[in-house]
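Structure ticket #2291
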Amino acid sequence: MADPELGVDVSNGVDLRNADSKDQVYLEETFYILSKKNSVFRVRLTSKGLSLTKETDGKAKEQTIVLRDIIGSKCMRSKKRRPGAGSCVCSSLVGQPQLKVVEENSGDLDENDISAYLYIYAYILKRSRRTLKRERTTITLRFRSFDKYEDNNKEAQKWRATIKCLITGQPITHMPPSNDKRLLLLLNPKSGPGKAREMFQSKVSSMLQEGEVPYDLHVTKYAEFAREFVRTRNIYNWRAIVAIGGDGVLFEVVNGMFERLDWQQAFQEIPLAILPCGSGNGLARSICHHYNEPYIPQNLTGLTMALCRGKSTPIDVVRIETKSKIMFSFLSVGWGLLSDIDIESERLRAIGGQRFALWAVARLVGLRKYKGVVSYVKIKDVSNLPKPKQAYTLSHSVSHDGALDSPDAEAFIDCDDPSEIFTSAANSKHHQRVDSWYSVNSRRSAFYSTRGSEYHSVTSAGSEMRSPVHACMHGPAPHLPSLMSQLPSHWEHEEGEFVMVHIAYQAYIGEDFLFAPRSQLSDGIIWMLIIKAGISRSQLFSFFLGISEGLHAEANNEYVKMIPVSAFRIVPEGSNGHITVDGEQVEYGPIQGEIFPNLVNVLVPDTK
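Resolution: structure written out below.
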């Protein structure tokens, strides 16, 4: 089996026989292990992944690192030894690695070593007790069949190019496909417990470097920064937009995209992604759930791999209308108990997701009731829904009172200021400011940057980006009557007192809250949970105990019911209470929504 650090040495022997007719073999070499006599590795790069067969004294062990677990590779040269160093630079990487390598353009390389080293980076699923997690594995292949470094490097580069073509799903060539476009990363440093910067620096940046994924990182300075950014910039310069933080920063991105005249083209060409550093992290948890990716709080490995591999899939969004605003939601709408817990526990944000559990106890003690009318269009057969439409008519969304302006006022501006950009030293460009990226403890801390990546500062007063144009919401044309109009006769209505009404279109609405076990990322279904007043505290306590496993979803009694719907309207009485959309508080009053399937694309783990 492959060790976490495997150093092997290539021989001249090449065998291109296809041992498995089901897998296409692209490259195959025989490598010798320097530290062990009579041991060789036969390494094959196939359509399935990297096959490693260790042969020692007539015995063979085989391991395959599947392609979906590999994020990248890099060709290196050995580093010049310091005078007096006792170890040989040609020694095998067994145990603590002794070989030091540098990039080819480094001035500190060892000219006497003609070998080319190929580092292959993988994150392999391993079972630890009862859970799965990913373990970083580096396979190091040493090429020295030829007498010149240039020839050995040519062989290593051929492997590297083939690996990259397989990862990106492009035709196999001897030239690696180029990443002309970068990722746009929008990081909210105040999400959740406020560790987004630290988590990115320690867990994400090095993986993006291994995957050779360039990016631009912008740290948000004020509320709605991400929304203004995607609305006013030429976002086609990037190949994906990544929200780093909680669901709130992605909510800003989604709605900023819908404020563009070209929203339809933008969503078709530019997928979105999320790296969860907030308190709720419902969408990230749902994505991992559907793709069997281990979800470990404050571990971003699986979703960072999705950024490296670039696979996307569509998700549903819901068009939400209140008395004064139009917005688009990708997660949930809440009224009552859960919304109270979400909003009122903000004062405990520093403790992360545990704030929800603590505040739930407080709200159970002081249980509230809300009076109003809940209306909905019930889906009678969730197994026989019509195929979701993929095309939508470009239309301008207007609130019931016409408060939103016409799209003619929309304009796009580019607010880039060269003085606010810190460019990676790999570009050999000068920079003026370095305060755009710093650790929690120091403004001068070193950071791990990806080649060609840029860090954009928003830390000084003069650098804030404020759009001079008025925002206007676009998006697909609604099918519902205006918010204050009478509903059609086929709608169903429930009137009275409620403890809560919560509506979601993803499986999870929090890391530990499996709200809708039957939900898919894009299925055209809104799941509405109604809990009426009169339910006992003990029943509510049982409800909270079962939410991590979704046990409430099968409840159907006089107090609790879960209903699949395609549209809804909530009309609360009075003015006291909380209504949330994707965890963000909105104005208290009438609210309605309808689902639009397949409207937004998101990056997801590769499970091929």
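Closing remark: The chain has a mean pLDDT of 78.
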